[in-house]
Amino acid sequence: MTAAMEMSVERMADLERRVQALEERTRKSLWSEETFRPSKADELVARHGEYVDKTVAARILGVTRATIYAMLADGRITGACEGRRVDVRSIGRYMTSKCAQVS
Fold first, then answer.
1. Which parts of the chain register pLDDT below 50?
2. β-strand 79-80 against 85-87: which pairing, if any?
3. Which of 19, 26, 35, 90 is 20 to 30 A off residue 43, Cα-Cα?
4. What is the pTM of this model?
């Protein structure tokens, strides 16, 4: 094998190592646990469904039904099904925003 061919083989091996290292770093960053952690809203929907009645909403938030009515009226959470039920995702968003304010 000539010297030029040997350099070419070495260069190709070096490039392959670099590509593998980049692929590994990319895989780790794309598939980290943080990327796939469900949001609070997603966890609540998985547990309770998309919509709940006001009693269940009160239980989730640890407040009274009267507080749920007040929260619906001032927009902290949103209603669904013509006001008969509460959107669970809005409860999750509210809980996330309250946690962020406390931190």
1. none
2. antiparallel
3. 26
4. 0.61
